[in-house]
Records
---
Amino acid sequence: MVHKGKPIPPALGRALRSLGEDVGTWRKLRSLTQAQLADRSNVSRNTLNRLENGDGGVSTENLLRILRGLGILEVFSRAIDPYESDIGRLRFDQQLPQRVRPRSVRGPEEL
């Protein structure tokens, strides 16, 4: 799989295919055709088909539209919430930096 001239790492390709399969399974569990879900999500049927086939070129906005059309946008949002993870809960009370710079850019006083 290649996107804009860059090869996609195998793990990413597997994740894209798995995501597409999961979206297709959710669609079928909801008894929706691709045309119905595309209409409900305000995306083209071709976009939905590309997502279900593991195409990495589908925009994040269109992915979120489709998840909303399936009624699982909140589930997705909770799944990526950093404070739902063990490390997020452990660091909940710590103040996060406004930005993170690479270590090579930091001055000696910041190390």
---
Amino acid sequence: MSDETIRVAPQPPPAVPAQTFPLATRDASFSNAAGLLIQSMPYALARFGVLLAASVVSLIWLVITLGGTAFLGNHVASVFGLVWLVGCLAVAGFVWGTLLRYVLHLIECGHVAVLTELITRGSLPSGGEPMFAYGKRIVTERFGQANVLFGLNMLVRGIVQAFHRTLDWIGDILPLPGLESLSRLINIVLRAATRYLDKVIFSYSLARPGIDAWQASREGLVYYCQNAKPVLKTALWSVVLEYVTSAVLWLLLLVPAGLITYALPAASREWGGIVTIVVALLLLGPLRAAFIKPVFLIMMMVRFHAAIEGQAVNPEWDARLAGISDKFRTLGQRAAFA
């Protein structure tokens, strides 16, 4: 008899039983997503209104910035014009990058809450509760404070990015000539897709009200990894189509942007085409954020919920994520102590 020890390969741990919840639609088509957007139109209009107001204020601020820079540079000293320009841009960056971003985040989370209900149950609960009140209530009940929700979404986004860095088959789902060598372009598209996927995971956590939000987010991440190919294929093509649609819309907006530029003071018109391009981008932002991006987000949400229907959470994927992302381990610790 051989002295060698017979080693038996360890068996993988059993999968966690599937967590199921109702699903009213499994159609991830553009037309179905557009229909769901129409059903939740108050949120789209709210986001459009906030961004349009921000764009108008930005246009006024642009006139003040360029006019003040030109005036100070021509009548005082060029250095004062430069200081004015830098100061105005810094103020605009703070308002746009912090305050406005936070408000839009809250609106988007409420919108996702409403969309999750429409996708899983087909309608909002009866009782006459306004759509905005319902979205706010669901998000507040689930997460308590908005800053907790904001931190969790950023944590999920970091985990998704870490997972994407381990993938070696991205070129296979975008079968365009020569695309496999354009790694930088693929990474840009992946980062854009991640901004959809963190809201998809958030939607899953809302659809699982019976467990802690941190644990639900952990499950959602594992489910995404188990179904990464079909879900990410939809995500990548959604990003490409979003860019194409936005580019076409921006070209169309150059016409009204040119008219707005012509109506600006003479000092601002001296900047010519640059002002027209900026104005077109400021007009594009509200339309893109309110009506273009939500359609593709809804397609992603439906695709994800349909893909995981009836599946079990595989603990092997849970362990794999823990091995590649410190943030995932942090998420697991928060779930354990919640």
